[in-house]
Amino acid sequence: MTAKLWRTPLDAADIEVTRGVVHIVEERCKGCGYCIAFCPREVLELGAHYNAKGYHPPIAKRMEACVNCHYCEIICPDFAIFSVAAQS
Amino acid sequence: MKPAVWTGDHFFTGDIACAEGALAAGCRFFAGYPITPATEIAEHMATRLPEVGGTYIQMEDEIASMAAILGASCAGVKSMTATSGPGFSLMMENLGLGICTETPCVVVNVQRAGPSTGLPTLGAQADMMQARWGSHGHYEIIALAPASPQELFHLTITAFNLSETYRLPVLVMADEVVGHLSERVVIPPAAAVKTRERVPASGRRDRYKPFQRGACGVAPMAAAGAGYAVHVSGLTHDERGYPDMSAAGQEKMMTWLTEKIRANRDKIIQTESYRLDDAEIAIVSYGISARSSLAAVDEARAAGIRAGLLRLVTVWPFPEELIRDLAGRVRALVTVELNLGQIHLEVERCARGQAPAILVGHAGGAVIPPEEIVARLSAVSRT
Amino acid sequence: MKAQPADHPLNGLLRTERIPHIWCPGCGIGTAFSACLTALLNSGMDLTKTAMVSGIGCSGRAAGYVKLDSYHTTHGRAIPFATGMKLAKPELNLVVFSGDGDLFAIGGNHFIHGARRNVDLTVVCVNNFNYGMTGGQAAATTPTYAKTTTTPLGNPDTPFNLPLLAYAAGATFVARWTILHNRDLTRCLEEALAHRGFSFVEVLAPCPTGYGRRNREKPLDALHLYQEHAVIRNGASPIEVELDPKRAITLGTFVQIQRATCIDMYDKVCRPAVAL
Fold this sequence. Notes:
Strand order of the largest sheet of chain A: 1-4
Distance between the termini of chain B: 63 Å
CATH class of chain A: Alpha Beta
Number of strands of chain B: 16
Shape of chain B: globular
Order of helices and strands of chain B: EHEHEHEHEEHEHEHEEHHEEHEEHEHEH
Largest sheet of chain A: 2 strands, antiparallel
Number of helices of chain A: 2
CATH class of the largest domain in chain B: Alpha Beta
Order of helices and strands of chain A: EHEEHE
Oligomer: heterotrimer
Strand content of chain A: 15-25%
CATH topology of chain A: Alpha-Beta Plaits
Radius of gyration of chain A: 14 Å
Shape of chain A: elongated
Low-confidence stretches of chain A: none
Mean pLDDT of chain A: 92
CATH topology of the largest domain in chain B: Rossmann fold
Largest sheet of chain B: 8 strands, mixed
Structural class of chain B: alpha/beta
Helix content of chain A: 10-25%
Structural class of chain A: alpha+beta
Distance between the termini of chain A: 19 Å
Number of strands of chain A: 4
């Protein structure tokens, strides 16, 4: 999916969109859903599985869409998710 | 900078002597709040501390004062506060924090008569039980009772040394009379003042545990900024300082906090005996009342009554064995104190019925005159 | 694309053996704490000379999770404890991290005096509008009419305007953000850490278990309220700062002024010989 833009920026061709990989530290997750709700690229969704504490950690349903913005990492209250630059 | 030890022959009050004792002991931080009759200690510290590179701060209340000296102590600086009854009540909360976190510091209480605002300018010795267990929870404490300005100087140093040795707040339980009494105070040369310095943390940072007791005593204490990333909490904690919310954890911590004092009672407790060897009646007293008692012993002896005095220099921990032994060889124990029976109850408990325990005390506001004690001694000797 | 084995970037500042922490699912304290740790990492300060002091309550538990010298003190007393520490050892950087109940009810007097003296502390207050640890009772920050366990019919009292209080008392850096405005919050905390003097950052955060449950506010609802009603007004007069989660929430850095700190003044007035 490409971002919907009102108009194409003039330097769109020169901009290299960063790519990221999300890491989920499942045992720390409490399933609040903040990362899912506020991911600007809708990368995450609630997993169906449980962690040891009985919460549903998120899963990355569209990892390829991640732009490594780190918002999931900084909104997470539980130090349970972070992103790193993807190795191309 | 000026010398921290004011070596020489002086004539000043107990409050000033107390402040000078603190400086001689190495105290470099004082946080306080004005209160009669302890204000002069703060005033003197406000002048003297900056002269010796230390810091004085007047806090917004005694709660904050007590918190500030604990913070300063955790930063590695010997610290003290001084107050009287109402302020002592406010300090009880953070006194408990100091006990729980094993933070050395000295709290001086120049006692006045209470309860509440009571008699601000007149003395009493009625906070002795508050000194024992005024903060919530079960704990051991060290409390000293100076009987003269000279002794206030020395015992303040002792208080600092004990607090560093056993890692806890130590109480100096003075009273208004001793605090405001002007007498000769001799301050020895700096080299003759024995001070106990804190054992700093050493060794590998990842292995250091701030509350891991060695075989020989308390844990070395890492100051803030020493690079040990310590965690210190008023919650029940383990040797790492981490909360342990269990009955077993509580038992373990409390055993340590009480045993470090109980096991060292003999090293901590100081008393003085006067004409006690052949005494039939033993006076037990402390602080200003011990001075009246001293005169009373001589007057009673002159009247043919074999009296003697046991002066408690350390009130807490209480010299239980000493009182028990004494009770076994005298006809009566007479406790002289400026309250309606506090240490008296301890004496009675430790006497275990071997000898009657009698109180000579009143509600505070005036020193107990020797004649009043002698009158009671002669009444007892006639029975 | 292969996932690299990696650690959470804040692990180095966490006592990881104590994570997961005690905060409830959706509680905002962890996010505020995380922003604070990121700001500490970005600050360039010597972290071995940095101590965190907390009071009591949910936010007060932060000191137990940070791998710095950390002091979990008594209820409301973090500021005077930190004041003693700073004055005794001025080279230390002190961060006070605590909650609204701790800092502004039981500790309110200490707060205003710390601000008055301009003690060089960074005070981070997680404001979740109630006492979380004890189960959701009314605080000095609970909005009027809000329900808590001790205001079952609604809160009859008026809450503090914390930035105004801080400014009036003499704080030289005053800001407010929410956990949602995380990048602004983190940058603001970096500025607060770099600021010489008493800096105060209020962080709005949801308390789903205590406050949210009784005020029909799920964690995500709270964040959406922040999103909808936040108005960023840097430099706004603290007297005009609003906090009505249903209407307007003023965010920003409101005060940033220079004034001699407590230690500056002590050196100047009381020990000029030492200061030279």
